[in-house]
Amino acid sequence: MNLPQQLAKHLREAYTGGNWTSVNLKATLADLTWQQATTQVYSFNTIATLVYHIHYYIIVATKVLQGQPLNSKDEYSFDTPPVLSQADWETLLNKTFTEAETFASLIEQLPEAQLWEYFTDEKYGNYYRNIQGIIEHAHYHLGQIVLIKKLLHQQAS
Description:
Layout: H1 3-16, H2 25-29, H3 34-37, H4 47-65, H5 86-109, H6 127-156
Helix pairs in contact: 1-5, 1-6, 4-5, 4-6
């Protein structure tokens, strides 16, 4: 397995399982209702906001891998679309998992040498740094989601 394939595998495992942390987005989010996903706990972001925030960087990087220019701002990464129903929540989840798979497939197709080239501009570092950063970012916020979910269950009991 070459490095792009390994990165794609690592991304998929964060989203759907099989990683060494034994925690993934799909299983963690599977039993949440839209009400739980949008419930504010303390001053934390909601689970829906964190899911969108993770997803935002996948959308941006996918466009770059498809040959489009980098067109994003970190400040937009929390502009969660309204989640006002179970259908809205399921739409967000479906987009998140479908587009993560698209991103993983594009990563697999990268020539390994491209991983060491600049990701659109020198100031952003190389492709490897950005792809690995997106994976680390997903794990970081997944941990937050797990904790918020525990707090929601604790408040409900």
